[in-house]
Design goal:
It contains 4 helices and no strands. It is mainly α. The longest helix has about 45 residues. It starts with 13 loop residues before the first helix and ends in a 5-residue tail after the last helix.
Length: about 120
């Protein structure tokens, strides 16, 4: 060990710490991505602890559209066990978007509704 590294912790073993992406089941990747999209959409809807500080409906719309496409396209691949809670979360975000909008979209025109159909409360 050289004097330049003296007193520093050893470098982390990233090879040991990371899991090969090939070993991750598709359902895990899909649900993880969906949860990230849901979380980001919720923050942009102003539903986070900081609320309106991060509210951006344009960003929320994009995230909800992406989530709706992912959930709709993957539903038959990931089984109802995994798809049902994702659909519920998506619908909740779509309804929250409608409530947060000053001028709500027409039924069927809201974020993700081209994939899910109109969302009503």
């Amino acid at each position: 060990m050289s004097d330049a590294n003296a007193g520093q912790p050893p470098a982390p073993d990233f090879d040991r710490m990371t899991r090969d992406i090939a070993d991750v089941p598709a359902v895990e990747v899909i649900t993880t991505v969906a949860v990230h999209l849901m979380s980001a959409a919720a923050v942009n809807l102003g539903l986070a602890e900081e609320g309106p500080e991060h509210k951006d409906l344009d960003e929320a719309r994009k995230l909800i559209n992406a989530l709706a496409g992912l959930v709709t396209a993957s539903a038959t691949e990931i089984s109802s066990f995994h798809a049902a809670p994702l659909r519920d979360g998506l619908k909740s975000l779509q309804l929250a978007f409608r409530e947060a909008s000053v001028v709500p979209d027409e039924p069927g025109q809201g974020p993700g509704e081209k994939f899910t159909g109109p969302v009503f409360s």
